[in-house]
Amino acid sequence: MARFGAGAVVTGLTAGALAVVTVLALQAQGSVKEAAPKPPPPAAGHTSGPSKPAAPAIPAGSGTGKRVVYSLKAKRVWLVKSEATTAERTFAVQPSAVSPLPGTYSVIRENRGPGTGSDGTRIENTVIFAFNQGVTIGFSAAVNGSTASPTAARTGGIRESRADGKALYAFADLGDKVVVVP
Length: 182
What we know:
By secondary structure, this protein is α+β, with helices and mostly antiparallel strands. The chain has 2 helices and 10 strands.
């Protein structure tokens, strides 16, 4: 019977542990949220063409703390970090046939996708937060890049661009507040 030195045993155990960790990391890779990449800040004193108009202010009465704010009238979403006075990001959305009622909700389900929306459109980065009239309501982006309102009569999919959908999905965690204002 061959005898192995202590160094050979330790090396074998270490290699086995690394193989197990690699397999587990690859399995978990699909379930971990990826942070949306942020553009680098502009260099001091440098401007690149005409300045962009100021982003719309966070709606009054939308609460405090980390939250997603959705304005029904403005058809716009704001991603607000804790104690922030300005939004990390804001973007226009296309509402669905069934809208949530004004109020405060929590993110109850997320799905990176792709999947199929209730109107048959392939969607991704779905963030579900409400139910109204028996319809599930949430934000999603069409895989084909369309930002048109969902076409089915009773859908709750609030459509956003793919880039905005990725940012919202990365920002919102299960249980986070979604504040709907008129």
